[in-house]
């Protein structure tokens, strides 16, 4: 019997650690730090490519080309834009602060950024996708340069660009129906029932990928963030190596799928 294929498109934009050719000698960060500032284990956690309509992942490190930022968020004005100048902890990325110039940034975007977004559009146009999910992980505590610096984060964050109930915020466009976001949160709370373990739109309501592609195509999007404490062992140093517990990753992988499939099957049974 064939396994059921769900009408999801899964995007995993931050799991890659590759350094584009020609940039390695210009970067201050070590390979260990590159891995730390990517989304450790997200490529394994969210790999359900045989169970969903569409799946895509990025190989380039988000430190060098961030696919979840607007393409016009450029340095030096935007230090945390599509090409970054410092890490969330304030560590300089480029030797002698020699940030790539506009021709280099253009090549990076044409090679890595726009092809990823074009692929999303093609999959949404050609496949029977009813829900797209941008899949991420997050550090347990907000880093110094984050908007939630020093604040403990939930185990799960579900973003639809709304408020803490999944309802619209002023001057913001929801990327999926509030009832869908709340239903997914309820399903996650069956696994993580502690107070504050599962939150809507806190600390992340959603980045450029779900917002831009919902606006462009009208297919609902959710940004899903899982806390790295669910599968990492503290290293004692910061930024420390990605001390990933493989067994916990495998167990969490199964948990994620059980939640997503249960959530969707429940939606098909009636209004939420």
Architecture overview:
By secondary structure, the chain is an alpha/beta fold. It has one domain (6-267): 3-Layer(aba) Sandwich (Aminopeptidase). The chain has helices spanning 31-36, 42-45, 102-126, 178-189, 208-217, 246-267, and strands at 6-12, 52-57, 131-138, 156-159, 198-200, 221-227. Strand 4 (156-159), helix 4 (178-189) and strand 5 form a beta-alpha-beta unit. It is globular, with a radius of gyration of 18 Å. The mean pLDDT is 94.
List keywords for this structure.
Aminopeptidase; alpha/beta; 6 helices; 272 residues; 6 strands; single chain
Can you describe this structure in just a few lines?
With 272 residues, the chain is an alpha/beta fold. The chain has six helices and six strands; from the N terminus they run βααβαββαβαβα. It has a single domain, classed as Zn-dependent exopeptidases (Aminopeptidase), CATH 3.40.630.
């Amino acid at each position: 019997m064939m396994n059921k294929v769900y009408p999801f498109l899964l995007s995993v934009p931050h799991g890659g650690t590759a350094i584009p050719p020609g940039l390695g000698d210009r970067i201050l960060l070590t390979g260990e730090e590159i891995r730390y500032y990517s989304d450790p284990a997200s490529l394994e956690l969210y790999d359900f490519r045989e169970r969903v309509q569409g799946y895509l992942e990025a190989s380039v490190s988000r430190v060098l080309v961030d696919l979840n930022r607007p393409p016009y968020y450029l340095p030096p004005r935007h230090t945390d834009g599509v090409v970054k100048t410092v890490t969330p902890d304030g560590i300089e990325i480029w030797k002698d602060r020699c940030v790539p110039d506009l021709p280099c940034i253009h090549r990076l975007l044409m090679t890595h950024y726009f092809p990823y977004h074009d692929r999303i559009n093609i999959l949404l146009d050609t496949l029977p996708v009813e829900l797209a999910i941008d899949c991420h992980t997050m550090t347990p505590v907000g880093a110094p340069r984050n908007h939630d610096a020093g604040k403990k984060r939930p185990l799960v964050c579900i973003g639809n660009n709304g408020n803490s109930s999944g309802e619209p915020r002023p001057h913001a466009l929801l990327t999926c129906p509030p009832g869908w976001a709340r239903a997914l949160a309820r399903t996650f709370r069956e696994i993580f029932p502690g107070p504050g373990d599962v939150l809507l739109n806190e600390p992340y309501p959603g980045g450029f990928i779900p917002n831009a592609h919902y606006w462009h195509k009208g297919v609902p999007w959710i940004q899903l963030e899982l806390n790295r404490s669910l599968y990492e062992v503290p290293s004692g140093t910061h930024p420390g190596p990605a001390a990933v517990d493989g067994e916990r990753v495998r167990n969490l992988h199964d948990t994620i799928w059980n939640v997503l499939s249960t959530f969707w099957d429940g939606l098909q049974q009636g209004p939420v």
